[in-house]
Amino acid sequence: MAKPKRIRRTSEEAREQILLAAEALILEQGPSELKFQSLADRANVAVSNVYHHFGGVLEIKRGLADKVIDELRADLITALGEEVHNEPLVFAENVMFRVYSILRSKRYAKLIGWIVLSTELGELEDFIKPLPAMIEVIAQHIARYLPEATAH
């Protein structure tokens, strides 16, 4: 089977394609398939492009972790926005249910699990740095719509 013709992309587009390829490989075949040649084939880029954007597997993990955290934050904020017209206790209950549902989705659960389980403990600190900021954004969003005692 002939390889598809490579498409000329901007640096940002190539980086995004590589991250999408990494996510797909992890979700479909597991983390053992996260190899530079597999990524290049899946993203339809040269292997040298993968090395250019991500010097190693750790950088791919970081890039994918950042992407997943950003998407998770956006999904959670969207869910919060859809609940704002409910009375405070219904809002709080629905938000907790929505947060739980989003976090347990197969995609997020697999990706976050893979990142945590495949990372050395010393490196893990880099991956959890964005979490407090994400929690703060969500807490501020909730506090805007609930009485202070309920928001806490």
Describe this structure in words.
The radius of gyration is 19 Å and the shape is elongated. Helix content is 76%, strand content 0%. It has 152 residues and is mainly alpha-helical. Helix 4 (57-82) packs antiparallel against helix 6 and helix 4 runs parallel beside helix 8 (130-145).
Rg of Cα set: 19 Å
Q: SSE order in H/E notation? A: HHHHHHHHH
Share of β-strand residues: under 5%
Number of helices: 9
Poorly predicted runs of 5 or more residues: none
Shape: elongated
**Beta-strand segment tally:** 0
The assigned structural class equals mainly alpha
User: How much helix, percentage-wise, in residues?
Assistant: over 70%
Biggest β-sheet strands, sense, barrel: none
In whole angstroms, how far apart are the ends? 59 Å
Give the overall average pLDDT. Answer: 78
How do you describe this structure in short?
The protein is mainly alpha-helical. The protein is 76% helix and 0% strand. Helix 2 crosses helix 3 and helix 4 (57-82) runs antiparallel to helix 6.
